[in-house]
């Protein structure tokens, strides 16, 4: 191996939340972490919203700013913990008055505005289940997730409702209520959230909540079939809080900005729950990424801890020069990144341009919280995801020809020797672990073998116990930090009359990590023209929104497996000009036979 660059832990290492990794890792227990939470009064259980909001009512945090929301126009709205307490009580009462029961699903289709945070936490207070939708989704992913998740209530804006939902409302017969934000008139078939909130009491007592009650439903993409609804329970807050303290070094005095949208798991676990459960001030920005805008948010909101994505950091890196001389970023004390591989040069760039190294960490929708990270007190190995957090046992499993862990008679082999590639696996049992895929027990079962949860990622561990991401073991695409299921994109493209078949891959991209690229076979009578390519791109965009393919190539001879599936792996090899590897499972072209 080449000489490894190591960034030594700085002076801050002596005052961070976790000073001695080895010691903490050895002595940690989740039961102990659970004891640092309040629990519902009277021993009535554990509720995420109580830990995030209500528990602060008896402390000096009551008047502390909980949410600082920067609007698209730059206007700032502050909500103290007390404001949030009252607003979330009202929202819970709205649900109660509408007859929404425990366990019923509330979907949000909202930007990063105060109503989103109130809806999330108010839903949890009612012990109903919150499922967030990414507001840049097109109508198809929205309908699919709301049908699979049995959405009973949707909270959205009048504009998003009219543009994406109204036309398909009839295909969602179980959707009882659509509540719209804003002060304007509510479109037909919807009710004004503001009016409903004004008509209910600001007092609400959270009903008894079993820590195993379902709280959050996060849809994630697989290689085949429909998106999977990963079930998370109230107990998860134990991990949200502990991991934010360890991996983000978060404290009540911090001003914390998690740039991920709450439509994705990072934006929910760390963009809502974790910072509030710690009592910090959470900054949100309704605007989209823009180098200057983001630097202004960091400067003006005096952000101290920043959690963002490699794509955003690479875009900032393109901005020539040293950001600290243009902007006052002196308040920033800790930066972390997640969601895709963080290349070593970005970590080093951070040190030069932002004055701080960037701490990569790893987790996924199913794990609910950070599992592996470069922690504040650790030396950073740029390019590595870091080491398992206290309470997390991670290993590398020997893999078979399909890239996944080799399972023989229910047994797997843990690779003890350093630097060998294999499937990253975790010992089940941490509090934020998903409890199932909605209505798919069989798929859930397949995620475990030999006593391990199989992550679907290929990684290696070096001699110092640092983990290095190698690749995903499946065809799922990671574009700008968002997981995109190729099957979902292929299915939409195949609804266009010109398309006979489609194969979708992630094409490496210097900024976004991967771009969604589709190869399509045309039906007879259609010609591969530039106009048709543009039409298909627009078609994808209209139906899928932000996860639509950016590039489309025509290909009348897509490679297939013997069972007739498009070989995405081979399409990718061809796209990259790589050797095609083991093609034994490919269908033989007819001229070979
Ligand atoms: P999601 O479930 O959408 O959060 O995506 C989880 C997946 O993102 C993981 O299984 C990895 O493939 C990828 N991922 C997350 N964090 C990292 C990281 N730090 N380095 C490399 N890949 C990552």
From TrEMBL:
Single GO MF descriptor: acetate-CoA ligase activity
Keyword set includes ATP-binding: yes
Entry-linked Pfam families: AMP-binding, AMP-binding_C
Coiled coil ranges: none
InterPro entries: AMP-bd_C, AMP-bd_C_sf, AMP-binding_CS, AMP-dep_synth/lig_dom, ANL_N_sf
Top-tier EC class: ligase
Residues annotated as domain AMP-binding enzyme C-terminal: 488-565
Protein name, as recorded: acetate--CoA ligase
Gene: acsA
């Amino acid at each position: 191996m080449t000489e490894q660059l190591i960034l030594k832990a700085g002076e801050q290492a002596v005052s961070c939340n976790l000073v001695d990794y080895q010691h903490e890792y050895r002595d940690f227990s989740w039961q102990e972490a659970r004891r640092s939470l309040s629990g519902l009064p009277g021993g009535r259980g554990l509720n995420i919203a109580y830990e995030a909001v209500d528990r602060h009512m008896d402390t000096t945090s009551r008047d502390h700013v909980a949410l600082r929301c920067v609007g698209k126009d730059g206007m700032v709205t502050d909500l103290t913990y007390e404001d949030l307490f009252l607003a979330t009580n009202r929202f819970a009462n709205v649900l109660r008055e509408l007859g929404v029961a425990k366990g019923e699903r509330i979907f949000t289709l909202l930007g990063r505005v105060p109503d989103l945070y109130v809806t999330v936490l108010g839903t949890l207070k009612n012990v109903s289940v919150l499922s967030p939708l990414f507001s840049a989704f097109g109508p198809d992913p929205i309908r699919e997730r709301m049908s699979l998740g049995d959405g009973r209530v949707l909270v959205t804006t009048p504009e998003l409702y009219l543009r994406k939902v109204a036309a398909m409302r009839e295909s969602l017969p179980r959707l009882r209520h659509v509540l719209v934000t804003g002060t304007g008139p509510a479109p037909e078939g919807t009710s004004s959230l503001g009016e409903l909130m004004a008509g209910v009491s600001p007092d609400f007592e959270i009903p008894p909540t079993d820590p195993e009650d379902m709280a959050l439903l996060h849809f994630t993409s697989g290689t085949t079939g429909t998106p999977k609804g990963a079930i998370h329970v109230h107990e998860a807050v134990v991990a949200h809080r502990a991991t934010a303290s360890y991996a983000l070094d978060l404290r009540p005095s911090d001003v914390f900005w998690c740039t991920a949208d709450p439509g994705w798991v990072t934006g929910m676990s760390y963009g809502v729950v974790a910072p509030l459960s710690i009592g910090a001030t959470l900054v949100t920005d309704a605007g989209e990424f823009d180098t200057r805008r983001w630097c202004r948010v960091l400067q003006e909101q005096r952000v101290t801890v920043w959690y963002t994505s490699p794509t955003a950091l690479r875009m900032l890196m393109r901005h020539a020069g040293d950001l600290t001389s243009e902007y006052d970023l002196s308040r920033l004390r800790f930066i972390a990144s997640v969601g895709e591989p963080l290349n070593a040069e970005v970590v080093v760039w951070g040190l030069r341009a932002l004055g701080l190294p960037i701490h990569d960490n790893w987790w996924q929708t199913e794990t609910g919280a950070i599992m592996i990270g470069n922690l504040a007190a650790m030396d950073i190995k740029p390019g590595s995801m870091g080491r398992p957090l206290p309470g997390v046992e991670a290993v590398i499993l020997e893999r078979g020809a399909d890239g996944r862990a080799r399972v023989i008679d229910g047994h797997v082999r843990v690779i003890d020797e350093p630097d060998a590639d294999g499937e990253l696996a975790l010992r089940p049992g941490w509090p934020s672990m998903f409890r199932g895929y909605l209505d798919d027990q069989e798929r859930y079962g397949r995620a475990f073998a030999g006593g391990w949860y199989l992550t679907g990622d290929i990684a290696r561990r070096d001699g110092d116990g640092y983990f290095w991401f190698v690749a995903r073991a499946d065809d799922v695409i990671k574009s700008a930090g968002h997981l995109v299921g190729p099957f979902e994109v292929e299915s939409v493209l195949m609804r266009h009359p010109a398309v006979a078949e489609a194969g979708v891959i992630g094409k490496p991209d210097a900024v976004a990590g991967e771009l969604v690229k589709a190869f399509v076979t045309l039906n007879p009578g259609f010609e591969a023209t530039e106009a048709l390519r543009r039409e298909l791109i627009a078609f994808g965009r209209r139906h899928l929104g932000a996860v639509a393919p950016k590039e489309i190539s025509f290909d009348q001879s897509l490679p297939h497996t013997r069972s007739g599936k498009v070989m995405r792996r081979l399409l990718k090899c061809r796209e990259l000009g790589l050797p095609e590897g083991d093609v034994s499972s490919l269908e033989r072209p007819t001229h070979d036979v």
